[in-house]
Specification:
mainly alpha, 6 helices, 2 domains
């Protein structure tokens, strides 16, 4: 019996209710598929079983019905999908379905940390823009103060010159 078949059987047995899927199951399945030797042929029925297992994993992930004690389920799920979508024994339709699941995962919850980071950066940028506007206003005020005395001094000098009697 293929190691892959054994892993599929183990996952089915170990994850039946009340037990649930664990990241370790996904890791083992990923490893079994990734390390298939060229002599190990995945025939049609085994490919169907494998795809059904991946579908059950997808459903468990989407419904939150999995054990995430070691916090690696997301990463092992994404890695498993990455390996599976590249296998020649799946149909085009199955491959496209898995690519869609990858997109869901990448666009969704797995990237929440990044989106909150970008929101924090946007908030910080807005604060910095306000500070910059404040400082630019201060610079303009200082420039006007700086040029004001010179203008007044010139005006006074002109007034004084105008008041002085001109020699005849």
């Amino acid at each position: 019996m293929l190691y892959l078949q054994q892993v599929l059987n183990d996952i089915r047995k170990e994850s039946n209710p009340p037990k649930s899927l664990r990241a370790e199951h996904l890791f083992k399945l990923n490893e079994a598929v990734f390390n298939l030797s060229e002599e190990d042929a995945v025939d049609g029925p085994l490919a169907v079983k494998l795809f059904q297992a991946v579908e059950r994993i997808h459903t468990a992930y989407n419904t939150g019905k999995y054990d995430n004690q070691d916090s690696n389920f997301f990463y092992d799920y994404l890695a498993l999908l990455g390996t599976m979508q590249n296998q020649h024994f799946f149909s085009q339709k199955q491959t496209e379905k898995m690519l869609g699941w990858i997109k869901e995962v990448v666009d969704g919850s797995g990237m929440l940390g990044e989106s909150t980071d970008s929101k924090n950066l946007e908030v910080e940028n807005e604060k910095l823009r306000k500070k910059l506007a404040k400082y630019e206003g201060m610079v303009q005020t200082l420039k006007s103060i700086e040029t004001e005395p010179k203008s007044k001094a010139r005006a006074k000098k002109k007034e004084a010159e105008a008041e002085e009697p001109k020699p005849q």
